[in-house]
Every structure is written in structure tokens, then in C-alpha cells.
Amino acid sequence: MALSVSISAPTAYISCFASSSNFSPPLLKNLRFPLFWPWQKVKMGPLSVSPMGFGTWAWGNQLLWGYQESMDSELQQVFNIAVKNGINLFDTADSYGTGKLNGQSEKLLVKFIREFDGNKQVQDNIVIATKFAAYPWRLTPGQFVNACKSSLDRMQIDQIGIGQLHWSTANYAPLQERALWDGLVAMYDKGLVRAVGVSNYGPRQLLKIHDYLQARGVPLCSAQVQFSLLSMGKDQMEIKNICDSLGIRLISYSPLGLGMLTGKYSPSNLPSGPRGLLFRQILPGLEPLLNSLIEIAQRRRKTIPQVAINWCICKGTIPIPGVKSVKQAEENLGALGWKLTSDELLQLENGALESPQQMIQNIFQTS
């Protein structure tokens, strides 16, 4: 599904640092400024997408993100603000939504598209990128194609922008892996998706699937990986180099490290639930990186999340920060329309290297 933004001057709210030591300043509601013109897009395979997308993992996930159906009205506002400011890439998955809310993220996304309160022509340029889980019962190409058809039915659309394999099974079920690849080929050949991509693929498997798809006339459009100032290890940088050399667009998920790069949390102020356990292990070792983020954010009159997201953009990736509130959407949009200098990029990367802790690697990522 694809929708085109037709607005005269995209705007967003900006956050500026106050003179106090609080590094998460309030949004100045009345200050608006142009971010980037809607026609400034980047190429991703056959598609033109915004330099940043929005991730929708939280739209239906109760366990990690505390989703409640009462949040839907604000999520609709989040979507409207994003689209009115030129965002046209939304990442989801058939597994986003827990328990009885299975597939809720896909359902909400299409509901919001249909109920969008702006220019209706915008609906023709929205790119939905959804991921199909490599569940153990999806053993044949036909079963994987049926997963794609289920998403199409759930969203009541005829074609998905980017159909992605959510993770590789090479480490534990290599025979299933080949069937899933053939499923990607089939859904592309049948016109069920405009392009195909992968998620959580390490450098070796990424090269293998690229060559396999290429031999069957299917271009690999994108590779989605955990990529941020907390996840810039050897594998991540090798994946980035492979993507650059092969014309694959790298989509960076968790650009804020699940919230650790927001400046909102500290060892004495942790989020509730499973994230709190992870933050307890990693946050105490992030002082050099967080100090660099704070210094640059103050100097640039940006917020810490805006600096962290902008780093991903400057590295040539498309970040997809998760959003579940209007405040987060407005703040994330402030990552657009400017760029860190080469010295600032180096300062941040040195801060990351000096921090002894890094984000724990996704267990589903292959080598």
C-alpha cells in the first residue's frame, strides 16, 4: 500500500534545552519550524521513503510496552502528526501484538491510514513494511506465502510495500530457512509485495540470501538490524558495509536502545517490566556515551533522542524509532532537517567505544 504526502509546509514541534540540569526539557508547544520538504525522500529498492520511519512494535504489545486499547486515540494522533510531517514509512510485523491482540499493530496501522484526517491523496504514498515471523509451523514456501496473505487480509489491502522475513532459522533449522527464502520469492513473483527484505540477518547469511534471491530475479530491498550508538559492533558495521556495496538499504531498529539513549533513565530510575532488568545491567557503563550525547544536544539545542537518531541518519541508515505518544512523535521528528558534523559523529562514536557496556545482541540475529 502506498500513500503521497501533499502538504504545503511540513512542520513539527521542537524541544529546546532549558538552563537547568534536566536534560529532558518540555516541548515548546507554540514553536514550529519546517523539518524537511515532503519530496525529500530516499530510495529503498523501487520505493521512495522518508529519511526516518516509525516503528509500531508498541502498538499491541502489552508485555514489554504496556499497550492498552485506551491508547488507540493517541496512537491515531501519533500517526497523523507523522504523516503530516512527511513520514511515509511504517514498520510492523504479524507478531506485533500479544495474546488475543495478535496482529494488532497491523490492524491499527491500516485503521489509522483509513481514518487519516489530512489530504486523502497522502494514502497513496504510505509504505507499509511488515515482517513475517519464522514460526516453526511455517515449514514450506506455501505456508510462508499464506502468512503474507493473512497480513493482507488483516490489513484489507492488495499489496504490501515491503515483505520481510523477521528472522533467520539458519542457526537451528537450516532446512526451514531455504523454504522461507522460496516463500519470499513466491510472494514477490505473485505481486503480493512490492519488495522484499530481511531482519536480524548477520553478515554471512545476508550475503547468502542476497545471492539466492538475485539468482531468482528478486532484488533484496532492505536489511533491518539493531543499529545505534549502543549497537555499533563489528557485525553491525560489516552488515552496513555489505548493504552499501550491494545497494541494500539498512533499516536501523532500536535507534534509542529501547530507551537507554533518551536521557530519561538512570541506574536509580529504571523502567518497569523486562526492560528494567536489561537497563540495570547496561546503564551504569554508559556514562561516556551519555555525556557526549548531552554535550552535543545542549550545544545544538536538541534533545538527546534527536541527536541519537540523527547519528543513525548520518550513517546512511533509515532509523525506525518506536512511538506510542504524541510527545515522542514530536520529539523524534526533531531529528530531521539537520545533520551532525563529522567532529560530532566522531565524538559520539568515541563516547560509545569508551562505554564498557553495549546493547545485548538480539538472540535471533545470525552470524
What does this 3D model show about the protein?
With about 375 residues, the chain is α/β, with parallel strands linked by helices. Helices cover about 40% and strands about 15% of the residues. The chain is built from twelve helices and twelve strands. The strands form three sheets. The chain has an eight-stranded parallel β-sheet with strand order 5-6-7-8-9-10-11-12, with helices on one face. Helix 2 crosses helix 3, helix 9 crosses helix 10 and helix 9 packs antiparallel against helix 12. The longest helix has 16 residues. It comes from Abeliophyllum distichum. This is Pyridoxal reductase.
In sequence order, what are the helices and strands, one letter per element? Answer: EEEEEHHEHEHEHEHEHEHHHEHH
Spatial sequence of strands, sheet with the most strands: 5-6-7-8-9-10-11-12
Assign the structural class, choosing from mainly alpha, mainly beta, alpha/beta, alpha+beta, or little secondary structure.
alpha/beta
Share of helical residues: 25-40%
**What is the average of the pLDDT values?**
86
Q: Provide a count of the helices.
A: 12
- Would you report the number of β strands? 12
**Measured on Cα atoms, how large is the radius of gyration?**
20 Å
> Termini distance?
32 Å
Major sheet details: 8 strands, parallel
Globally, the shape reads globular
Multimeric status of the protein? single chain
Q: Which stretches of 5+ consecutive residues score pLDDT under 50?
A: 2-38
Content of β-strand: 15-25%
Pfam families: Aldo_ket_red
GO molecular function: oxidoreductase activity
Domain NADP-dependent oxidoreductase: 51-348
Organism: Abeliophyllum distichum
